[in-house]
Write a structure and sequence with these properties.
The chain has 152 residues and is mainly α. It has 4 helices and 3 strands. A 3-stranded parallel sheet has the order 1-2-3, with helices on both faces. The radius of gyration is 16 Å and the shape is globular.
C-alpha cells in the first residue's frame, strides 16, 4: 500500500493506512502466531518489506517510512528471539524492488533495463528458497546487496 504522493500532498488518512497495512499488520499477525511457535520453539516468520525500507525515495515518504518500520520490526524481533533463546524460530525479511502486482496498476514507475520490475513468481520463488535455507534477508534483485554494502 502506498499513496505515491509527496509528504505535504498526502492526506493524513492515507499516511495512517499505509502505516497500518505495511507496518502495524506485522505486529498483529506475529502476535497471533508467535505464541504457538514459541511453545514448540519452531517456526518461521517472514516480514515483507521493500528496498524502500532500506533507502528513501522522493514521493514515497509514507511508503518508505512504513517499510523502514517493517525492516526495524524484523531486526528487533530477530534479536528478541535470540535473547529468549528461541533458536528454532527463524526469521526472514524480504526487500524486493518493484514487483508486478496490482499495487502498481496506474502508477508511473521510472525503471530501466538494469532494474526491471520483478515478476511476482520470481519473488515467491526467492522467498520459498530463503525460508528453506533459513536466510535472514532477501534483497531483489541481487544487485542491491552490493549497493547496500557500498553505501555503508
Amino acid at each position: 500500500m502506498f499513496s505515491g504522493k509527496k509528504l505535504f500532498e498526502c492526506p493524513d488518512n492515507l499516511m495512517e493506512l499505509t502505516m497500518a497495512v505495511n507496518t502495524i499488520s506485522h505486529f498483529y499477525t506475529t502476535k497471533a502466531f508467535l505464541p504457538a511457535m514459541m511453545e514448540e520453539n519452531h517456526g518461521h516468520i517472514v516480514t515483507i518489506a521493500s528496498m524502500a525500507g532500506k533507502m528513501g525515495a522522493s514521493g514515497l515518504v509514507d511508503y518508505c517510512a512504513s517499510k523502514h518500520g517493517a525492516v526495524g520490526f524484523h531486526e528487533s524481533l530477530t534479536t528478541e528471539l535470540i535473547h529468549l533463546r528461541k533458536n528454532g524460530i527463524k526469521t526472514t525479511v524480504v526487500c524486493p524492488y518493484y514487483v508486478d502486482t496490482p499495487m502498481l496498476n496506474g502508477a508511473t514507475i521510472n525503471t530501466s533495463q538494469a532494474l526491471p520490475i520483478l515478476k511476482s513468481q520470481d519473488v515467491v520463488d526467492n522467498i520459498m528458497d530463503a525460508v528453506l535455507t533459513n536466510r535472514t534477508m532477501v534483497l531483489m534483485p541481487k544487485f542491491f546487496y552490493f549497493m547496500l554494502f557500498a553505501l555503508r
